[in-house]
Amino acid sequence: MSRVLIIQGHPDPAGGHYGHALADAYTEAARAAGHEVTHIAVARLEFPWLKGEDEFEKGEPPPAIQESQGAIEAADHLVFIYPLWLGDMPAILKAFLEQVFRPGFVTDPEKEPGTFGGRRLKGKSARLIVTMGMPVFFYRLVYRAHSLKSFRRNILRFCGFKPVRTTLISISMGGEKAREKWLQRMHALGKAAR
Q1: CA of 100: how far to CAs of 1, 71, 72, in Å?
Q2: With bands split at pLDDT 50, 70 and 90, how would you rate the model's confidence at 143?
Q3: Which fold, 3-192?
C-alpha cells in the first residue's frame, strides 16, 4: 500500500470548493483501499513569502514548511489539487512551492551547486489535478497549458518525481452530471493511489 500526500492548493482556507470535494473523494477511496493518506491545506499554513536568493538558498525554512517537507519525504505519491487562476496556479501555492523545494531539500547538499545531482525526491510519483472555468481544450490549445507544463517539468521532474500525471477538469462544462462523474473518477484514482 502507498503513502499518499494530498496538497490542497486552493487559496480559500474555509474550504467548501469543488477542489475540496475532489480531495475528499480521492481520500475516501484511497483509505478504503488501504492506502495511508495525509493532507496539507496550503491556505491554512503560516509562512512568509521568500524575498530573495540568499533567503531561498541559505535561510531556515519556517516550522510549517519543515513539517511539509517531512510529509513530502514520507510520501510515495503526491496529489496537488488547485484551481487555475489567471492562467496559473494561485500565488499562495507558488509561494509554498518556493519555500518547500529549496536546494538543500530537493538535491543532495553534499553535491557541488549547479551540478543538478543527487535528487533526494527521486522515486516518488505525482498527480496534478487542476480545475478551471474554461474548456480544457481551450486551455491546451490557446494557452498551450504553459503553467502546467512548467510545474511538471521545471519543478516536479527536476526534483525527481516520475511519473507525473495530470487531470484537467473544466467546472463550467457539463453541469452537475459532469461534476459527479469527476468525483467518481477521483474514487478510481484514489483506489489505485495514482
Answers
A1: 26, 11, 9
A2: confident
A3: Rossmann fold (3.40.50)
